[in-house]
Structure formats: structure tokens, C-alpha cells
């Protein structure tokens, strides 16, 4: 029943089947035969994957979700679809010097579809898609692991045989329940990793189909599958840059597994100066060189297009993002990079200490070989070298295949995050371990099989395996709960990375957003203490102190922030606000101008500059500044309002009316603009239109005392005294301290009393 096959590393049909069956039989005491049929295996894996992360389905948008989704205009219908191909993951133009250069248009497209189907920024739909994607990928892993453990053997009808059902099911379960995946599944931005993994695996399985032979299929069919695999790799790359590494994995699979390239044998021939070309000729006849040419050409084409799209070159990261990459000594850089690799390996082995961010002092630099943490490097490379030697030099072809592909999946997808080819913007990131964890699951499953084979305590091994699955499931459920809100997520990081300034900063920001300024100040101060150059923490702390009228310290903090980072436009603007409050008008104007110099399209800064000019009675300059703000941001309600009020106060009623009507055309539902224009129309004796706008504004905001008070003034002028009395009284109920309303109400009452006396 197996007439045609590519027996990954096996010399003949029967021995390969026998060895694979033995490995699978070793796991019989762990997995019952009732769940081994492919359909049931996939169903179990899919359901387990959903159970692990179901708790995150109703979570909020947290951490990077705010920038990549909530503040990303590429998700909204107003942005042309074509812009997605010219913008980075965060919605900025790729040609901009400030762009992150993360080009993932297909991922952003799925966010946009989510936004459209959800009818807005409702996080539940986004989270459900992520959970289902992880479940689908886990199901797909059953087929991938079946190839990795069982090899490629086909029936006469071209159907691949599942020769390692227990091994593939156990590995897929280990993958489905791995807690390190929580960031990808529970964090919406993790969809980039999920989509990348989906098409990565489809590309690998597609490449495997190139080696399916039958009478009806030949070279053309093989080429088709290779080309399809390259195309799927390109799609994976458009979801996340890591996707291109599937081409390298396919090449390793082809050379070492399909081509049976035995490194030990080649080394022996070189040492014995064997000039035989038989092996090379076999590879050429097998089409290996042709397939390598296709893979190389496809990869080179992808890299070229990607580089052209990036425009201005790689992104610029700061020292706090990746301190090791800024170390002067090459030795220090190498030691720390390898220490980061060992931390990633530890997260795969023991995913108990998880953190949303590992930068800003979370992992102090190793500055000398006397640091005890160097032991972790030695342990990592001891294990890796041992595995590599076994993978390349073992005489057991079955063992070579499993270890080679396990290491391939572990190492190759991780290479873009390794700092070897370019600087990355993080120290450790759990999300980049989603694909490498496939290799970890292969090696772990193989290890369990080897232990079962060489020990009689099979029940103990079964208990360990089931214990790992249960504990990991429990950890996934707990960690998914922590990702449901920013407060829980940020606080969970304190026990893992107490030295991480960004953790304290984010907790402070979350508290400030909730109005707890006192607690926020404490966390911001700790962030600045841990990282004295943390300008964003200084800026936010300065803002809170400004609101609490602690202007002197606010000015010192903001001045230090712009001294550390001279192009920090937001800090320059906030410094200008503080200086304006301190009556240092010239310095404030200079700060605003500097902010605009560093960020030309800065409507809020133009608005604040206009307020400064208004305070200095430079009315023309104020109007010009506010007009610039509305040009840059047509929905800038405050700038429109200030223009209307200034023109009203200076007696330019016709111009004020024109500006008010222009503003309401752009922002038709803004009740503050209705109120301001209604005041102007009332002064112009357009009472009916003014009344309509006042009533509309009150309907939108019925508890605004000034709205009722000014409508009462309109009725007072208009002669509708009973209505004036009614709205004066409502206004005073809402704000009993309003002196102007009290005075006008008193005048009205005296007028009504005089009228009553005349009637008598």
C-alpha cells in the first residue's frame, strides 16, 4: 500500500515504518487509542486551545492595541484601502523617518474587517478572532507534527500516511496549551504572529506536497507546490516579517531530510579525500538544485521588495529599547545577546514568569564574564551543541530527521529577533516565540518518547506529561485573565520585572486616566528614579503637576525632558503651557515654536499658541494660530470655539457667525459650537435661529447651567419673560453660585413685579 514515498531519512520501507511505530508505541500509555483518529485528535486539540484562552474573549484593548488599533486611522472606512500598502503596522507612512518600519498590511486588513463587522472599536470581536486563529493553528499542528515525526509516506492514491498519531497529538497539545502564547492570543496585536504562523505552516505543508509522487503527477506538479509554498511564505511575510524564514526551513527540510544529506558521511569523505561525486549527482537528478534556486530567487525577491517599501532604511531604536545593541564592546554585546537567547529558551521550558515588556532595566546588562548569569549561556550552548551533533551526525536517520526539524523550527523562525542581522526594538518578547515553540514541542515530545523507551516507570512519565499539560492550561487561563485589562496586565508585571521603568510608567498612566493623580505621581516618580532619562515619564509627571498647580517642579521636569531629547515636541508644548501659566510669555512662545519646528503638523500646539496670543491681546496672531489648528485638524472643537468667542468679544459678529457656521458644517453634533454660535446669533437679533441652536445644545447636554442661563438671556431680550424665568431657575438649580445668572434673574423678577403692579 506504499508504492511511492519519500522516506525522510529511511533506507527502506519496512525499517522506517517499524522505527516510527516503536516511537509512537512508547507513548501508548500516555494517550489512549480512542483519541488517535485524525478527526478526533484535531477536535480535542482545537477545543483545548479554545479553553486555554477563552477567558480573554471579553477583554479590553490593552497596551499596544491602543496604537495599532484604536488610534490607527487605517482601520476606518475614510482611509482608502490603498493606503494600507504604504503605511506601517501603526498607521504611519513607511517613508517617514519616525516610522517603525513594521510592514504588515494583511494583518491591518483583518483589523479593518473586524472594525467593519463589529461596527466600531468593540474588542470582543477582535479577541474572538484571535482565539479561533490559535485554535485553527493548533489543529493544523497535528498535520505538521505528523510530518515531523512520521515522515512523508503516501498510499497509491497519493494520501499521506499518519505514521505517528500519538507523537503528533501530544506535541500539538503541548503547543496548544503553552502559556508563552498568551501575548499573541490575548493581545489583539498578536494577530500578526498568529496569521504569520498560519501561512508559515501552510507554506511548509505545501512544500511537503512537492514530494508526493504518482503516475499522474510529475515535475510540473512538484514545481507548482514549490511555487505555491513560496507564495504562501510571501503572504506570511505580509502578516509579519518573520514569515520569510519559512523558505529557510523548507530548504533545510529538503537538503537534510528529503535529500538525506548526511553531514557525518560527508565529513568522513572529506577527511579520507574521497572525490566521489555520486552524492552530488543524485541531488542534481532529484531536482534539489532547481528547488533551491526557486527558494533563493523567491526569498531574494521578497527581501528586495521589502527593502524598497521601507524607503528610508531600518527603524531607529533607542538604548532603552535594546541596551545590549548599544554596548561599545563587541564581547559585551555577544554575551548579552546569548543571555537573551537563554532567557527565551527558559520561557519555553518554564513559562511561569511572563511579562508584557522586558525592556528598561528589566534585564540588567552583563558587563563581565564574572557575572554568574554567564552560566545560563554555557548551559544553553551545551544543550544546543549536543542536539546539533545528534541531529547532524546520528546514524539513526529517524532521530536525525526529528532533531533536525525540531531545531529548524526552534532556531530559524527566531533569527529575525536574534540581533544577528539587524538591531531589534526589544530585549525579550514572548510573541516572537510563537513559531519557535513548535520546535520546542518536537524536542520535548521526542524526549518523552526516548525516556519511555529506556525506563520501566512509564506511569511516572505519563503523570509528568499530564501534569505539564494541566499546569500549562491553568497558567494559560490565569495569564489570559491578566490580559483582560491594562490594570491587571501592568500590575502582574511588577512581580516579574520590578526594575522595569516602563511597568511603573504604564501603571501610572493607567491610574492617571482613571483620575487617581496621587497614586499616578508615585509610580511616575519611581519610573524616573529607575530610568533618569525616561522623558515620557517626565512629561506625564510634569503634566499632572501642572494641573495641580505645582508649576515650578513641572517646569524643571519638562525642561530636563527636552534637554535629554531636544526633538520631543509634546514636552516642548507642555513646557510652553507651564511657562504661560507662570506669566513667562516670551519663553512660552519660544517653547511652542520649538515644538512646531519638530512636529510641523501639531494642531494642539497651534491651539495653545493661540491662547497665549489671546492673553497678550494679539488677536490677529491668535486667530491665525487657531485657524492653523483647524486646517491641520478640522474637528478641533476648542480652536473653532475660541475663534468664535474672540470674534464675538471683539464685536466682529458677522465674521464670528461665518466661522461658527463653517465649524458646525464640519462638526455638526458638537453642542459647545452650537452654544457659541447661538450666542452670536442672539446678539445679531436672529432670535429664532439662536433659540433653535440653544435648545439643540441643551438636548445634547441638558446639565450645562450656562446653556440654560444664556438661553434665558435670549428670551429676556426677546421679551419671552416666562420662558426666561423658567431657564434662569433651571440654570440656578444646576449652578447656584453663578453670579451673572443671579443678577439677570433678579432684574427679570423686578421687571415682572413692576409689570404686575401696572396691571393692578
Name some characteristics of this structure.
Serine Threonine Protein Phosphatase 5, Tetratricopeptide repeat, 67% helix, 34 helices, 760 residues, mainly alpha, disordered N terminus
* Strand order in space, largest sheet: 1-2
Distance from N terminus to C terminus (CA atoms, Å) equals 117 Å
Estimated helix fraction: 55-70%
**Shape, principal axes of CA atoms:** elongated
The major β-sheet equals: 2 strands, antiparallel
Q: Poorly predicted ranges (pLDDT <50, ≥5 residues)?
A: 1-21, 214-218
Chain-averaged pLDDT: 87
Work out the helix count.
Answer: 34
Structural class: mainly alpha
Number of strands: 2
Q: What fraction of residues sit in β-strands? A: under 5%
Cα radius of gyration in angstroms: 34 Å
Summarize the structure.
The protein is mainly α.
Describe the structure.
The protein is mainly α. Among the domains are: 329-470, no CATH class; 500-587, Serine Threonine Protein Phosphatase 5, Tetratricopeptide repeat; 601-701, Serine Threonine Protein Phosphatase 5, Tetratricopeptide repeat (Alpha Horseshoe), CATH 1.25.40.10; 707-759. Helix content is 67%, strand content 1%. Strands 1-2 form a two-stranded antiparallel ribbon. It starts with a strand and ends with a helix. The model is unreliable at 1-21 and 214-218 (pLDDT under 50). This is Protein O-mannosyl-transferase TMTC4. Pfam families: TMTC_DUF1736, TPR_16, TPR_17, TPR_8. One of its GO terms (molecular function) is dolichyl-phosphate-mannose-protein mannosyltransferase activity.
Amino acid at each position: 500500500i506504499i508504492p511511492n514515498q519519500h522516506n525522510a531519512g529511511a533506507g527502506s520501507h519496512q525499517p522506517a515504518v517499524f522505527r516510527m511505530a516503536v516511537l509512537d508505541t512508547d507513548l501508548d500509555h500516555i494517550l489512549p487509542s480512542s483519541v488517535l483518529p485524525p478527526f478526533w485528535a484535531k477536535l480535542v486539540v482545537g477545543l483545548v486551545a479554545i479553553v486555554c484562552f477563552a477567558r480573554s474573549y471579553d477583554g479590553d484593548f490593552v497596551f499596544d492595541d491602543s496604537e495599532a488599533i484604536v488610534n490607527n486611522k487605517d482601520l476606518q472606512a475614510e482611509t482608502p484601502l490603498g493606503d494600507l500598502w504604504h503605511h506601517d503596522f501603526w498607521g504611519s507612512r513607511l517613508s517617514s523617518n519616525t516610522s517603525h518600519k513594521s510592514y504588515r498590511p494583511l494583518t491591518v486588513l483583518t483589523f479593518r474587517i473586524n472594525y467593519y463587522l463589529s461596527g466600531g472599536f468593540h474588542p470582543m470581536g477582535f479577541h474572538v478572532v484571535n482565539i479561533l486563529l490559535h485554535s485553527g493553528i493548533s489543529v493544523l499542528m497535528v498535520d505538521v507534527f505528523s510530518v515531523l515525526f512520521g515522515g512523508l509516506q503516501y498510499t497509491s492514491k497519493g494520501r499521506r500516511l499518519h505514521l505517528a498519531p500519538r507523537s503528533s497529538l501530544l506535541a500539538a497539545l503541548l503547543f496548544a496549551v503553552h502559556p508563552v502564547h498568551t501575548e499573541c492570543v490575548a493581545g489583539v496585536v498578536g494577530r500578526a504572529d498568529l496569521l504569520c504562523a498560519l501561512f508559515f505552516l501552510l507554506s511548509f505543508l505545501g512544500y511537503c506536497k512537492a514530494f508526493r509522487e504518482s503516475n499522474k503527477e510529475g515535475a510540473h506538479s512538484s514545481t507548482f507546490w514549490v511555487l505555491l509554498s513560496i507564495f504562501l511564505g510571501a503572504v506570511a511575510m505580509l502578516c509579519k516579517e518573520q514569515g520569510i524564514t519559512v523558505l529557510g526551513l523548507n530548504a533545510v527540510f529538503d537538503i537534510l531530510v528529503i535529500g538525506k544529506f548526511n553531514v557525518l558521511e560527508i565529513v568522513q569523505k572529506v577527511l579520507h579525500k574521497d572525490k566521489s561525486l555520486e552524492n552530488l549527482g543524485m541531488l542534481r537528478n532529484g531536482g534539489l538544485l532547481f528547488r533551491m534556486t526557486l527558494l533563493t530567487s523567491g526569498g531574494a525577491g521578497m527581501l528586495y521588495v521589502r527593502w524598497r517599501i521601507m524607503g528610508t532604511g531600518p527603524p531607529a531604536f533607542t538604548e532603552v529599547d535594546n541596551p545590549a545593541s548599544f554596548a561599545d564592546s563587541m564581547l559585551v554585546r555577544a554575551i548579552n545577546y546569548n543571555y537573551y537567547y537563554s532567557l527565551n529558551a527558559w520561557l519555553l521550558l518554564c513559562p511561569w514568569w511572563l511579562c508584557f515588556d522586558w525592556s528598561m532595566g528589566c534585564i540588567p546588562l552583563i558587563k563581565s564574564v564574572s557575572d554568574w548569569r554567564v552560566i545560563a549561556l554555557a548551559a544553553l550552548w551545551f544543550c544546543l551543541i549536543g542536539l546539533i551533533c545528534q541531529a547532524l551526525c546520528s546514524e539513526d536517520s529517524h532521530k536525525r530527521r526529528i532533531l533536525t526539524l525540531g531545531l529548524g523550527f526552534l532556531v530559524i523562525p527566531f533569527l529575525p529577533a536574534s540581533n544577528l542581522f539587524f538591531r531589534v526594538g526589544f530585549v525579550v518578547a514572548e510573541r516572537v516565540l510563537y513559531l519557535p515553540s513548535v520546535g520546542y514541542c518536537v524536542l520535548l515530545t521526542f524526549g518523552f518518547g526516548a525516556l519511555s523507551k529506556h525506563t520501566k516507570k512509564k506511569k511516572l512519565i505519563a503523570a509528568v506529561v499530564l501534569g505539564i499539560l494541566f499546569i500549562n492550561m491553568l497558567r494559560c487561563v490565569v495569564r489570559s485573565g491578566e490580559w483582560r485589562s491594562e490594570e491587571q496586565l501592568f500590575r502582574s508585571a511588577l512581580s516579574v520585572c520590578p526594575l522595569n521603568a516602563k511597568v511603573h510608567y504604564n501603571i501610572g498612566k493607567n491610574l492617571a486616566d482613571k483620575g487617581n493623580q496621587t497614586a499616578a505621581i508615585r509610580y511616575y516618580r519611581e519610573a524616573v528614579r529607575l530610568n533618569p532619562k525616561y522623558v515620557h515619564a517626565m512629561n506625564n509627571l510634569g503634566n499632572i503637576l501642572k494641573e495641580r498647580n505645582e508649576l515650578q517642579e513641572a517646569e524643571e521636569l519638562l525642561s530636563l525632558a527636552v534637554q535629554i531629547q531636544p526633538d520631543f515636541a509634546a514636552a516642548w508644548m507642555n513646557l510652553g503651557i507651564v511657562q504661560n501659566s507662570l506669566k513667562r510669555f516670551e519663553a512660552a512662545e519660544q517653547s511652542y515654536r520649538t515644538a512646531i519646528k519638530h512636529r510641523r503638523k501639531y494642531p494642539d500646539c497651534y491651539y495653545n499658541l493661540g491662547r497665549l496670543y489671546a492673553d497678550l491681546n494679539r488677536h490677529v496672531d491668535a486667530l491665525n494660530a487657531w485657524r492653523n489648528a483647524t486646517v491641520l485638524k478640522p474637528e478641533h472643537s476648542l480652536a473653532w470655539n475660541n475663534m468664535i468667542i474672540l470674534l464675538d468679544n471683539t464685536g466682529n459678529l458677522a465674521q464670528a457667525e461665518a466661522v461658527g457656521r463653517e465649524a458646525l458644517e464640519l462638526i455638526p453634533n458638537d453642542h459647545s459650537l452650537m452654544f457659541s454660535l447661538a450666542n452670536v446669533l442672539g446678539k445679531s437679533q436672529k432670535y429664532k435661529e439662536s433659540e433653535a441652536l440653544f435648545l439643540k445644545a441643551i438636548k445634547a447636554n441638558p446639565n450645562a447651567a450656562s446653556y440654560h442661563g444664556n438661553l434665558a438671556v435670549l428670551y429676556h431680550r426677546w421679551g419671552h419673560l416666562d420662558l426666561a424665568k423658567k431657564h434662569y431657575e433651571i440654570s440656578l438649580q444646576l449652578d447656584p453660585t453663578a453670579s451673572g445668572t443671579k443678577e439677570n434673574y433678579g432684574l427679570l423678577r423686578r421687571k415682572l413685579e413692576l409689570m404686575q403692579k401696572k396691571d393692578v
